[in-house]
Amino acid sequence: SLVGRKIVLKYFPERIQTWNSQVDKHRDSLLNYIIFLRITPFLPNWFINMTSPVIGVPVFPFVFGTFLGVAPPSLLAIQAGKTLHTLTSASDAVSPLQLVLLIVLGFASMIPVAFKHYFRQKLE
Questions:
Q1: Helix (H, G, I), strand (E, B), or coil: what is residue 92?
Q2: Which residue among 17, 69, 74, 112 has its CA within the 20 to 30 Å range from the CA of 44?
């Protein structure tokens, strides 16, 4: 709302400007962009949560993209928590396979964007 907008604009003006330009570039595939950002650690989730309404991210891509993007890392955290009793070291919490899976999911979220870009170039 109005107070939140003022606080965000006061403390993060450069980051908001940068992210706003990125969102504008991805307006036609905003859902996939939000999913990608939620799966990957490029922007902290708190920053996305606070700035999305300020820069005009529509509710549907924000909510649905957040759900789809936060679920895979959350499931991995739950799995790691379930196995805490058998851990011998902290590195056992997340396996290399799980990290590869997160990377693959991050890239998979961008496949529709790549196809759209490819077919748009073919049609022009």
A1: helix
A2: 112
Q: What angle do CA 76, 89, 83 make, to 5 degrees?
A: 40
CA 27 to chain centre: 15
Instruction: Give per-residue burial for 74-99: e unless 16+ CB within 10 Å, then b.
Output: eebeeeeeeeeeeeeeeeeeeeeebe
Phi, psi of 110 (to 5 degrees): -95, -5
The whole-angstrom separation of Cα 28 and Cα 45 is 22
pLDDT digits (tens, 9 = 90+) for 16-58: 899 889 899 988 889 999 998 898 878 888 889 988 988 889 9
Instruction: Tell me the whole-structure pTM to 2 decimals.
Output: 0.67
Give dist(CA 57, CA 24) in Å, integer. 9
